[in-house]
Design a protein that fits this description.
The protein is built from 15 helices and 17 strands. The protein has a seven-stranded mixed sheet with strand order 9-8-10-11-12-16-17, with helices on both faces. Helix 13 packs across helix 14. About 45% of the residues are buried. About 5% of the residues have low confidence.
Length: about 400
């Protein structure tokens, strides 16, 4: 209630100047991201997240925007993208710039485990909910209670490590080489895989890390070849995934089972080495496949192919798009741009997405379409876990095409 005629006039003036806390005057939702357009993480970012960010914004705007009940209208999206240069410090500064200077309404995440860790305290400090599609980390669980605005949607090392080792046991692998990139992703993945191997009494004959910017791993591969292991397990990022494959092929090294990390599920991978036949039987982190039984999944795949002239990657592209679906659904459910309410909605509701029904428990997605994939006749098939398979694992791996001709 206002007191007296003059008081009512003041109140009316305030309502006219600041209607609905300034929201009624909003004509768009501004979303920002600091992500790798250059540096070692750029390959992954350009494959997994950036195409989906741009496609989602275009699709939302094509239908008039996201409906905000409080404003009784749809708001289109504006996307601001900055290059974090694959540098942790730069990423932190740019995210803070997006929040404080650009005053964005929402933040979309960077690429890679280390980058997600770097920005987590910042987005939590300022109360910006972020769903990370390319962070695979057990340590995140240790700090999840300290960063309640941060959510992990990608399958985590504990699920994928178990899935990988189950395959090794199933096909009869007894001896492996385990190598990993000395980065947060490689270190954490290895810390889960190594104990699982021990529990199954699978011998680790070679156990070694290599630097993120490694330029030549052929000496290490020669050591592994001499060890005569059944399986080569590499917890790798895209650039080293490609290099290891290329150098193993050049060395004529063809283990019975070859598993590499991020990059194997990229569609470009099957073109880099001479076509699908060259990578037949190689396994990698993932997995998603257009055959998954979720409404909208195949349609998203087809739209991505039409928009970009290429398939999405079968590792985390679908997770990236699902995270955007969740943000959009949360805004519509809450009916406003109140980030605290949207954070609470994300934390408690279930969301239909292209990776299935997503529900977070303690900040972590409780389901995934697959854990491990394998290239089979040009398709990246889900081979783990068993209940999610689109195909059985092929063992041993096919020889390199050059070897077939001999």
């Amino acid at each position: 209630m206002c007191s007296g005629f003059a008081g009512c006039l003041v109140l009316l003036a305030l309502v006219l100047v600041f209607p609905l806390n300034g929201y009624a005057a909003k004509d768009k939702i501004v979303i920002g991201t600091a992500i790798s357009l250059s540096g070692p993480y750029a390959t992954g970012a350009g494959m997994t997240q950036i195409p989906n960010y741009k496609m989602w914004v275009e699709e939302v705007n094509a239908k008039g925007g996201i409906y905000v009940k409080q404003l009784k209208k749809k708001l289109p999206l504006e996307l601001i993208i900055y290059d974090d240069k694959s540098d942790l410090g730069t990423a932190v500064k740019l995210v803070e710039q997006l929040i404080l200077k650009d005053k964005v309404d929402f933040i979309l995440p960077p690429w890679g485990t280390a980058m997600h860790f770097a920005i987590a305290p910042i987005i939590n400090k300022y109360g910006y909910p972020v769903i990370g599609p390319t962070i695979s980390s057990e340590k995140l669980r240790e700090i999840a209670h300290k960063v309640p605005y941060f959510f992990g949607i990608l399958n985590m090392p504990r699920e994928q490590a178990s899935g990988l080792v189950e395959i090794l046991e199933e096909v009869g692998v007894k001896k492996v080489a385990l190598i990993y990139v000395a980065d947060a992703y490689g270190i954490e993945w290895t810390s889960k895989v190594a104990p699982e191997l021990g529990l199954k009494k699978i011998d680790i004959a070679v156990f070694q890390s290599y630097p993120l910017d490694a330029k030549d791993l052929s000496p290490l591969l020669k050591t592994i070849k001499a060890a005569e292991v059944d399986a080569l397990l590499c917890m790798s990022y895209p650039n080293d995934t490609f290099m290891i494959t290329k150098q193993a092929k050049e060395l004529g090294y063809n283990p019975k089972l070859m598993y590499l990390g991020v990059g194997v599920a990229f569609p470009v991978y099957k073109k880099m080495f001479g076509g699908p036949e060259a990578i037949e039987g190689i396994m990698g982190a993932g997995a998603w496949n257009p055959k998954v039984p979720y409404p909208g999944a195949k349609d998203w795949y087809d739209r991505h192919v039409k928009k970009w002239g290429k398939e999405p990657d079968f590792w985390a592209s679908a997770f990236a798009y699902a995270s955007l679906q969740i943000l959009e659904q949360s805004i519509e459910k809450v009916g406003s741009l109140d980030r605290k309410k949207i954070r609470d909605c994300i934390a408690t509701q279930t969301f239909p997405t292209v990776i299935g029904p997503v529900k977070f428990d303690g900040g972590f997605n409780t389901q995934s379409p697959g854990e491990i994939g394998q290239w089979q006749k040009g398709q990246f098939e889900i081979v783990a876990g068993k209940a999610k398979r689109t195909a059985k694992p092929v063992y041993p791996k096919a020889p390199w095409p050059e070897e077939k001709k001999k």
